[in-house]
Amino acid sequence: MSQTAVRNLGPATALACRECGESYDLGPRYACEQCFGPLEVTYDYSRVSRERIEAGPRNIWRYRDLLPVPSNVADTPNTEPGFTRLVRADNLAEALGVRTLWVKDDSGNPTHSFKDRVVGVALAAARELGFKVLACPSTGNLANAVAAAAARAGIRSAVFVPSNLEQQKIVTTAVYGGTFVTVDGNYDDVNRLASEIAGEQDDWAFVNVNVRPYYAEGSKTIGYEVAEQLGWRLPDQIVVPIASGSQLTKIDKAFQELIKLGLVEDKPYKVFGAQATGCSPVAAAFKAGHDVVRPVKPDTIAKSLAIGNPADGPYVLDAVRRTGGAIEDVSDDEVVDSIALLARTEGIFGETAGGVTLGSLRKLLASGALDPGAETVFINSGDGLKTLDAVAPIAKPSANIAPTFDAFRKAGLV
């Protein structure tokens, strides 16, 4: 797409390369022309205050002074994502032997995953950049969010997913209308195709490709909310699932911004990452002490995390190592067991990504990497109704009886 004059992206001032620092005007670009490094948004934070945030709407737009969006973003049709609940998980904490444990439950977003956050920001930026179609390659949750956000905004959507995606996510994307394409291949194949299409279709905003610098900033709102919901303080430890790795790096960025702006106390915190063993290139690199993340072919039930070549993998390693955290991975059986544990202890039905995160938290506790006496938050990034097949084998009725009290009694259900 030719460079378009940006009308209004609020506090955003420029794009800067994460590798060499080269600066660019705001626009529809995502890679540095000098070193091909990824670009990040830079800001003028002069309007940020607790008072302005707390006076804002109870969704991500309360943080508009920290995002690349117009100041009036809340007035345009959108799905109003964010400000999901932070649940004090005392039952789960007792089961695990942890002093204080919180679940940031992003299943409460409009399409039931954290992806509504990043899509909301991407859509706002795409409008200002002159794009006409909202598009994405996806492992499922992003497809849901893009299709819904485009429908709400009254624009066309085009989403591309692997053909072996969970049926629940296929249905919950197709229902919103728009162009919906299944592709024979894994997510990395779909992503390559999307990059090719983005190069040819000038007015298509692929949220996680050609408007990725803006899109990725939406994940910061998880970090902002955690801090605000804790009474404007940071947790001691946070455990975050890793797919592309962007969510983890942006939560860390949010914490750093809050410290820099004096909105929270400057204190140490640790960031931990979670992957499924069947797609764990970042965990493998961390455990081996490597700086390079080697791509893998995904093979896991946690399809929303099945990105074999994670774009932000090296930056995840940097954030985790800088804060003194660690990265763990868990088997599919451990994922299912952890989904069930969260459901029966806290009444929260997480999708497979949530099982990965809790399962990794449990292993980090067992290894001593995670401090059981420190205040800990972990992210449940999506709703278990999206991944029913994963738990169907273990989620069975307690009994099947005749409609009589005698049958009830004989079944030993009292």
Radius of gyration: 21 Å
Task: Specify the helix fraction band.
Answer: 25-40%
Mean pLDDT: 96
Largest sheet: 6 strands, mixed
Across the major sheet, the strand order is 4-5-13-10-11-12
Quaternary organisation: single chain
Choose one word for the global shape: globular
The total of helices stands at: 15
CATH topology of the domain at 86-112 and 216-391: Rossmann fold
End-to-end gap: 67 Å
The CATH architecture category of the domain at 86-112 and 216-391 equals 3-Layer(aba) Sandwich
CATH class of the domain at 86-112 and 216-391: Alpha Beta
Q: What proportion strand?
A: 5-15%
Total strand segments: 13
Overall structural class, as computed from helix and strand content, comes to alpha/beta
Query: Segments where pLDDT lies below 50 for 5+ residues?
Result: none
The helix/strand order is EEEHEHEHEHEHEHEHHEHEHHEHHEHH
Modified residues (N6-(pyridoxal phosphate)lysine): 115
Protein name: Threonine synthase
Keywords: Lyase, Pyridoxal phosphate
Enzyme class: lyase
What does the model show?
- Its EC number is 4.2.3.1.
- This protein is an alpha/beta fold and 414 residues long.
- It has a domain of 203 residues: 3-Layer(aba) Sandwich (Rossmann fold).
- It contains 15 helices and 13 strands.
- The protein has a 6-stranded mixed sheet, sandwiched between helices. A 4-stranded parallel sheet has the order 8-7-6-9. A 3-stranded antiparallel sheet has the order 2-1-3.
- Strand 1 and strand 2 form a beta hairpin.
- The longest helix has 16 residues.
